[in-house]
Design a protein that fits this description.
The protein is an alpha+beta fold and 128 residues long. The protein is built from three helices and six strands, in the order H-E-E-E-H-E-E-E-H.
Amino acid sequence: MIVGSHSIIYSRKPEADRSFLRDVLKLTNVDVGQGWLIFGLPPSEVAVHPADKNDVHEFYLMCDNIDAFVAEMKKHKIACTAVQNMGWGALIQVKLPGGGKLGVYQPRHARPKAMAPEKAAKKRAAKT
């Protein structure tokens, strides 16, 4: 049923932020027309946190070594906040070229197995 997720980053300078995702983070992408890029992401996860109101969502990228990530961003002159130890992970914010901020963290919590798209799961089942 669910085959993935589609996250959106709103930006005042979308071309600059698309270039960051393509050229700096090296995310795979496809041009769906007129330079509109859709980026591939590694397996992801979703959590539900308690809140005082609904319709509040956050988007973070995860990395396996926050210090190495920050060092790589410095090579590209991309500003990052100081690393915050949150217990459940190490968290920073990256200043995007378009002016927004993007959270990146190194998780320290247990991670679920990536969910396989339904067709791939059926194909694997047929082989056994």
